[in-house]
Structure formats: structure tokens, C-alpha cells
Amino acid sequence: MNIATFSFIVSGVLLNALAQLLLKAGTRNVGAIHLTLDNWFGIGLKVATQLPIIGGLACYVASVVLWIIALSRVDVSIAYPMLSLGYVVTAVGAWYLFGEALSWQRLLAIGIILLGVALLARS
Fold first, then answer.
1. CA-CA distance, 16 to 37, in Å (whole number)?
2. 3-class secondary structure for the chain?
3. Residues 5-33: pLDDT tens digits?
């Protein structure tokens, strides 16, 4: 895999992780969502007008474009496992931005993911 292809993959993964973090930020503004027949429209409107959620959706669209470019250049059996880098970025971002816990089990899992991606990238 050349550097350009790797850059498309990593950029797509980073945008996908950013999308997750923006969606979480938007839902924090909304609060816990409990849909009923009476409130689904109002809650849907509230969710749809949150700027972080709109930004998250835009990041998803951009990540899909980059992902399609990456898949045109590399086997899906190589590219798809690279998506696991998104778990690492999202976990660290959630810890930093939202104060979510990074227990030793999560850190161990992140280490295993990074090791797997490094092995995969070398293949």
C-alpha cells in the first residue's frame, strides 16, 4: 500500500471518528432521547437542528467519499480492518472531550488494535 492510499484510508477513518464525536456532542445538547408517538416529530426536529449533529453527518459523507477512493486502490480485506483505528481515535477523543473513562481494559484493547493495524499495514 502506498502513502496516498494509506492517507485516504486514515483520513476516512479520522473523519468517521470525528463524526461520532460530533454526534455525541449534539446528543449531549439534546439529552436522553425517549421517543413516543406524541413527541417523535419535536425530538426529531431538535436533533436535526443541532449544529454538531449536522457537522457529524457532513463528516460521514466526506468519509464515505474518501473510503470509496481508498477501496478503488486497495483490497477491502486490507482496508476494512483499518477502520478499527476509528475505535482508538474515538475512545481517546471521548476521554479528552467528554471525560469518558479509559480503563486498563480499554487501554489494553486499544494497544491490541494498534498492533493489529500495524501488522496489517505491513502486509
1. 31
2. CCHHHHHHHHHHHHHHHHHHHHHHHHHHHHCCCCCCCCCHHHHHHHHHCCHHHHHHHHHHHHHHHHHHHHHCCCCHHHHHHHCCHHHHHHHHHHHHHHCCCCCHHHHHHHHHHHHHHHHHHHC
3. 989 999 999 999 999 999 999 999 888 88
pLDDT digits (tens, 9 = 90+) for 40-49: 998 899 999 9
Type of residue numbered 106: R
In whole angstroms, give the CA distance from residue 73 to residue 41.
42
The whole-model pTM stands at 0.86
